[in-house]
């Protein structure tokens, strides 16, 4: 019994121990006192114990781990059943192993917890500023999805951390997120946030450092060095990833750094570093590839780049002032950095200060850096994707560049150095070449064509402009207007290249082209590369339709009223651009618009001077012509409209003639240059070749040179000829208007010739005239004009004018207009050709009228109907005999009858003179010409239509009548016939209107026929049959061919 009891006690002790061990195992595994443990966890513990060689038990079949094993709750009773096959020693091992496992898990969980807390702390920092969205690509897919649910997407304007369903980053939410992640995984996710936190911290430090100390002063050296270090570190971080750049953009780094640059309160090193940081941030082009959760960054970057800028609302002058007001911002120190305005800076506020830095070297360095940055996109693009759009092509950057290139602006507003202007043109070309239609609109908003033409012009023509303050310059302009009464006059310094009423100046203070000499100091060493690039700019943009194409370039050229005038005046001219402009279908409308602008300004001034009250001169004062009365205003408006119509047509012709004149002058100047070069090369004193005899060889009449030079000249002449033909095709006149114009020119030229002779043979001494007639000084310009005509037309030797103010410039304009109308006709009337020859002589384009008697030797031995052979021949220079009004009033010519009657009186008086007693070559400046000369001048310059300047006839009393082919009896019979006819009804009018055209009236009297010519109310007898010396001067079969345009093989283009 004792042994049995011992056995029973032993069995009870083992069961107790077993229960105790099972309870311990259950308690260890049920650390949270849930009343159950995990079957899977128990199975894994038993499976892990099998790796120990000392373990001998077999895992119960129900606890063997297998794939797809489902977890379940294991109670205490279930545990006893599951482990019933294990021995007591095995349970002890299981207990020890479970305790070890739980201890290790607890330690790992503590590490996991610390990592979890650190991750949550870092996320919270970014989450509060709504920056956690930029972590998505750095976290695992599951964590990224978790963060995305807590990110605002559809409301980019709200910067709060609003997510879906009000989710947050509470501790339980984070624990659930990483429940299956190890501490290493958590730390890995946490480490990925380190750069973002650093970037945020550096950004905050930069904001604080920039506003340290006295904000009214510039940054001290120590603070400047610290800010430079912060910027360098931010640059390094921004270059690491796109997400870091997003974070910095989100934190308004672009606008703040731009404000730092604009204040000019930091060193140049800081400005360079700030500019580099801006380039790095915008180079990611987040506005083009932003994700849904990056809408806020895209919005801020779009605002900074001015993507939504309304181009049409941009004010160029306001932007010009704003750009250059930013330059002295250092006077305000760093105050703008502490204001909210720093959040509204854009890329234009960054570029503007860089291109307006006061030091040339620093300004050039920054412009160069901008160009290099913008050019980098050209090498990065894929061929199939095309070139990326320049980030400077959205807003006001283009306007700032154009403002700096506008050398016609005040000297404080534009770039004075030629190399930097060349760089700015290169920068502008890079920007606009990929900007498409938007770039063209920006170019137009910045008055790009005006800027380009001001660069092309440079200092080639115009007057030097003194560097004074802008207000003083405006005050000076006001004084100039008082002196000139705002009338445009010829610029005597360069009259051949600057015509009044050809260019349009929108600013009333600027009436002439002006330039600052210091803007072109560099040209001596650097060359005019800015002008070359300006011309290349338009040609490049027209070269491909992917840029602007020819149509787009022409449209931009037409935005500036002086484009044609500038392109034809520069050397070398822009032949390609001229042709493209003239060939455009819109050119006539463009030209009419330009002419109307110029004409309206002139007519407005002219009418104002005629009806505005002025105490300083005789005017409608004190009884005034008030325009406030509606009836007077309407009358004045109608009158001005009619004047504008006529003036506009004249201005349009004037502009075309000006272009033609400059192109023709280009060829002449080139030929003269080659002639001078050839003369120097053949001059022994200049080291050139001499003839074998040692004498200087006479220069060739045409410039000779190498074959290449001759080809260049031929090419130049070809280009000029093609452009001139296009100009001729654009003459806005009908055949009728051309006829009227030629007649009007002829009548005015004849009167000018008479007045010039009167002035040149004045009855006064010059000093006495000026002292006795001070009131006529305003007419001095007209007197100079007439003296210049006399010098050119009548002087015996060809010499340059001593005073440039004497040149008859307006006649030169008339000549060019006349030549332009003749360009597109294969044959023109001799009347027009003779008129052209006359004006060419009056303007010095042809030699003056010769005084030698070259006809006498040719006609001496011939038998002609007007020759008797009894007396010698003598040539009379009838064009040099003045006819004063005291003489002319006795010889009216209002009808053919009056002309015939006057001729009868002249022939009768001439027949009573002894013409052989006077020297026919008496000096043409004699004060009182002889009666013989006066009668000859009356016949050939007043009563008869006669073109040559001299006439040869016999020295007899009947010599004049014989040369005309008229007798006194015939003239008396002719008067009887004329008294019974209406000449205008029987006249034949040539091309032109009934008011302005020339007309011919043929009259037959007996067996002889004569012709009268009618022009603008005045009649003359035809006496111009000079081509055939065997005929008398009044022979009239050729009158029709002389005046008519109908023989032209190619008609003048009709006005569109």
Describe this structure in words.
- Helix 11 (253-263) runs antiparallel to helix 12 (268-282), helix 27 packs parallel to helix 30 (707-729) and helix 38 packs antiparallel against helix 41.
- Residues 4-11, 327-331, 687-704, 770-777, 919-927 and 1048-1056 have low confidence and may be disordered.
- With 1056 residues, this protein is mainly alpha-helical.
- Strands 6-11-10-9-8 form a 5-stranded mixed sheet.
- The chain is rod-shaped and about 185 Å long.
- Strand 3 (463-464), helix 22 and strand 4 form a beta-alpha-beta unit.
- It contains 43 helices and 11 strands.
Overall pLDDT, averaged? 83
Task: Determine Rg (CA atoms, Å).
Answer: 50 Å
The main sheet comes to: 5 strands, mixed
Give the strand content.
Answer: under 5%
Helix/strand/pairing category: mainly alpha
Measured distance between first and last alpha carbons? 145 Å
- Helical coverage, percent range: 40-55%
């Amino acid at each position: 019994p004792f042994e049995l009891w011992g056995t029973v006690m032993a069995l009870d002790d083992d069961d107790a121990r077993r229960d105790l061990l099972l309870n311990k195992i259950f308690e260890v595994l049920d650390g949270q006192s849930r009343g159950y443990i995990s079957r899977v966890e128990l199975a894994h513990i038993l499976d892990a114990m099998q790796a120990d060689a000392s373990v001998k038990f077999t895992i119960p079949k129900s606890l063997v781990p297998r794939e797809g094993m489902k977890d379940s709750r294991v109670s205490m009773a279930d545990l006893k059943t599951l482990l019933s096959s294990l021995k007591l020693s095995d349970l002890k091992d299981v207990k020890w192993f479970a305790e070890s496992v739980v201890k290790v898990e607890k330690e790992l969980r503590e590490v996991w917890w610390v990592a979890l807390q650190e991750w949550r702390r870092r996320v919270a920092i970014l989450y509060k500023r709504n920056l956690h969205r930029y972590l998505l690509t750095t976290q695992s897919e599951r964590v990224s999805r978790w963060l995305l649910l807590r990110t605002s997407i559809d409301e980019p304007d709200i910067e709060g951390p609003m997510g879906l369903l009000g989710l947050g980053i509470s501790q339980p939410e984070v624990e659930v997120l990483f429940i299956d992640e190890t501490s290493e995984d958590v730390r890995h996710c946490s480490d990925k946030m380190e750069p973002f936190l650093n970037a945020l911290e550096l950004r905050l430090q930069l904001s604080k450092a920039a506003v340290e100390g006295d904000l009214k002063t510039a940054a001290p050296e120590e603070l400047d060095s610290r800010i430079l270090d912060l910027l360098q570190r931010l640059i390094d971080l921004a270059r690491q990833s796109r997400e870091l750049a997003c974070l910095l953009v989100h934190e308004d780094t672009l606008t703040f750094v731009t404000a730092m640059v604009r204040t000019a309160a930091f060193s140049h090193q800081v400005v360079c570093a700030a500019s580099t940081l801006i380039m790095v941030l915008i180079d990611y082009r987040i506005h083009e590839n932003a994700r849904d959760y990056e809408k806020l960054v895209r919005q801020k970057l779009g605002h900074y780049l001015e993507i939504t800028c309304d181009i049409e609302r941009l004010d160029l002058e306001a932007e010009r002032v704003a750009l250059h007001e930013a330059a002295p911002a250092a006077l305000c120190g760093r105050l703008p950095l502490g204001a909210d305005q720093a959040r509204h800076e854009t890329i234009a506020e960054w570029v503007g200060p860089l291109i307006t830095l006061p030091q040339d070297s620093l300004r050039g360095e920054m412009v160069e850096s901008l160009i290099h940055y913008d050019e980098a996109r050209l090498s990065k693009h894929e061929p199939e994707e095309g070139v990326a759009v320049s980030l400077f092509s959205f807003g006001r950057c283009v306007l700032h560049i154009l403002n700096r290139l506008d050398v016609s602006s005040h000297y404080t507003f534009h770039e004075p150095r030629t190399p930097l202007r060349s760089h700015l043109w290169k920068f502008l070309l890079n920007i606009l070449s990929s900007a498409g239609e938007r770039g063209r609109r920006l170019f137009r908003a910045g008055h790009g064509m005006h800027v380009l033409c001001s660069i092309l012009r440079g200092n080639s023509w115009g007057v030097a402009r003194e560097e004074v303050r802008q207000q003083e310059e405006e005050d000076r302009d006001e004084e100039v207007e008082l002196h000139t009464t705002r009338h445009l006059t010829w610029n005597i310094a360069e009259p051949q290249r600057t015509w009044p009423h050809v260019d349009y100046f929108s600013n009333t203070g600027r009436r002439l082209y002006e330039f600052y000499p210091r803007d072109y100091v560099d040209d001596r060493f650097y060359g005019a590369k800015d002008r070359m690039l300006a011309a290349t700019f338009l040609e490049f943009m027209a070269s491909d339709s992917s840029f602007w194409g020819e149509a787009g370039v022409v449209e931009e050229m037409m935005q500036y009223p002086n484009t044609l005038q500038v392109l034809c005046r520069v050397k070398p001219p822009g032949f390609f651009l001229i042709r493209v402009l003239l060939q455009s279908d819109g050119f006539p409308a463009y030209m009419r618009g330009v002419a109307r602008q110029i004409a309206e300004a002139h007519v407005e001034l002219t009418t104002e001077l005629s009806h505005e009250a002025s105490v300083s001169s005789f005017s409608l004062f004190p009884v005034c012509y008030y325009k406030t009365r509606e009836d007077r205003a309407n009358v004045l408006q109608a009158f001005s409209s009619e004047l504008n119509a006529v003036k506009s047509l004249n201005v349009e012709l004037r502009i075309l003639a000006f272009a033609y004149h400059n192109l023709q002058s280009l060829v002449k100047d080139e030929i003269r240059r080659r002639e001078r070069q050839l003369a120097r090369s053949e001059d022994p004193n200049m080291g050139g070749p001499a003839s074998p005899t040692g004498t200087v060889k006479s220069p060739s009449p045409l410039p000779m040179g190498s074959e290449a030079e001759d080809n260049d000249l031929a090419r130049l002449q070809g280009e000029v000829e093609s452009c001139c033909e296009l100009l001729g095709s654009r003459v806005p006149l009908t055949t009728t208007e051309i006829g009227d114009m030629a007649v009007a020119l002829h009548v005015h030229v004849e009167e000018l010739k008479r007045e010039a002779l009167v002035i040149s043979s004045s009855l006064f001494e010059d000093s006495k005239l000026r002292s006795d007639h001070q009131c006529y000084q305003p007419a001095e310009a007209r007197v100079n004009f007439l003296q210049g005509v006399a010098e050119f037309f009548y002087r015996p030797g060809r010499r340059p004018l001593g005073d440039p103010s004497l040149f008859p410039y307006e006649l030169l304009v008339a000549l060019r207009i006349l030549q332009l109308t003749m360009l597109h006709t294969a044959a023109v009337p001799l009347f027009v050709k003779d008129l052209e020859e006359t004006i060419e002589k009056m303007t010095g384009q042809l030699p003056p009228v010769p005084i030698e008697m070259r006809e006498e030797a040719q006609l001496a031995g011939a038998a002609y109907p007007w020759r008797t052979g009894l007396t010698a021949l003598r040539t009379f220079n009838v064009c040099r005999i003045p006819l004063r009004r005291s003489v002319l009033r006795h010889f009216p010519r209002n009808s053919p009858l009056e002309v015939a009657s006057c001729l009868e009186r002249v022939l009768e008086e001439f027949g009573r003179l002894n013409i052989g007693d006077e020297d026919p070559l008496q000096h043409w400046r004699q004060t009182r010409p002889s009666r013989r000369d006066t009668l000859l001048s009356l016949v050939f310059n007043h009563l008869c239509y006669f073109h040559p300047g001299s006439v040869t006839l016999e020295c007899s009393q009947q010599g004049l009548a014989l040369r005309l082919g008229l007798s006194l009896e015939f003239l008396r019979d002719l008067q009887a016939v004329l008294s019974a006819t209406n000449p205008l009804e029987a006249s034949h009018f040539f091309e032109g209107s009934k008011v302005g055209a020339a007309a011919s009236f043929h009259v037959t009297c007996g067996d002889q026929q004569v012709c009268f010519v009618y022009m603008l109310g005045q009649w003359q007898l035809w006496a111009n049959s000079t081509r055939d010396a065997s005929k008398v001067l009044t022979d009239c079969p050729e009158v029709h061919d002389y005046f008519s345009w109908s023989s032209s093989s190619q008609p003048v283009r009709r006005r569109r």
